[in-house]
Amino acid sequence: MTGLVILLHGVGSNGNDLAGLGRHWAPSLPGVSFASPDAPFHFEHGAGYQWFSLAGITPANRPARVAAAREAFDRELTAILEQHQMTDKLDKVVLVGFSQGSIMALDTLVSGRWPVAGIVAFSGRLASPQPLTPALNTPVLLIHGMADGVIPVAESEVAAETLRDLGVSARSDFEPGTGHTISARGAQLAAEFIAERLNLS
Q1: Is 144 part of the annotated catalytic residue set?
Q2: 126 phi and psi, to 5 degrees?
Q3: In whole angstroms, what is the distance from residue 139 CA to residue 168 CA?
Q4: Percent of the chain with pLDDT over 90
Q5: Is position 180 annotated as part of the catalytic site?
Q6: Following DSSP, what letter does each residue of 84-140 receive, concatenated?
Q7: Looking at the predicted structure, is the pLDDT value of residue 201 above 70?
Q8: Does the pTM of the predicted model rise above 0.85?
Q9: pLDDT tens digits for 45-73?
Q10: How far is it, in rounded angstroms, from Cα 42 to Cα 52?
Q11: Residue 193: pLDDT above 90?
Q12: How far apart are CA 79 and CA 67, in angstroms?
């Protein structure tokens, strides 16, 4: 196996929601396995799952929610890595997040917990508590629709700037007219980034 891509869904969704992205990418990423887990907590406002609760969330308390979610997130990631026999091969692992999944993926980076080969963050934000102590060998690709009405594109703009200031290699792509979704173009950019990070290109 040449690599593992772990897909992290948004709030109120489930692993199946992003699993199709892995199937779409598979032909262009030979030898790569995909995992698309359900987040560990049930969404309190309907079906689906969440990495942390949005009930009563504010910009002030969001970082604490992210920090509190780390234990369950790390348990999930550890189980996936063990299942795919990649525990000691983080240089062959890429995390791909969407929305709340991106928040958690970026948190793994800036906390230095999971120095993986790369991170793709679709429609996310950097919401981790200080201090930020990133794994500097993990490049990031941030993709965000400029018409996103759920998480404003400014969040990824700020995240990219913050990461670069910390010494992280952060590329960003902002798509005019795209809302809170993964476009075909965004998916293609992500596939190219993954191939590059896993030395497939």
Answers
A1: no
A2: -95, 110
A3: 6
A4: 95
A5: yes
A6: TT-TT-GGGEEEEEETHHHHHHHHHHHTTS---SEEEEES----PPSPP---TT--E
A7: no
A8: yes
A9: 888 999 999 999 999 999 999 999 999 99
A10: 9
A11: yes
A12: 20
* Residues shown for the chain: 201
What is the rounded radius of gyration, in angstroms, for the C-alpha atoms of the chain? 15
105: pLDDT strictly greater than 70: yes
Does the annotation count 172 as an active-site position?
no
Q: Which of 38, 91, 180, 183 is catalytic?
A: 180
| DSSP-assigned states of every residue in 54-95 | -TT--TTTHHHHHHHHHHHHHHHHHHHHHHTT-TT-GGGEEE
Best CA proximity match to 143, nearest among 168, 121, 116: 121
- Show the tokens assigned to 5: 């891509």
Handedness of CA 11, 15, 21, 26 (dihedral sign): positive
**Residue where the block lists tokens 């308390």:** 61
Beta partners for 170? 140
Q: Which of 99, 123, 128, 156 is catalytic?
A: 99
Q: Point out the catalytic residue in the list 107, 148, 156, 172.
A: 148
d(CA 59, CA 120): 23
DSSP state of 37: P
State the Cα–Cα distance between residues 195 and 192, nearest whole angstrom. 5
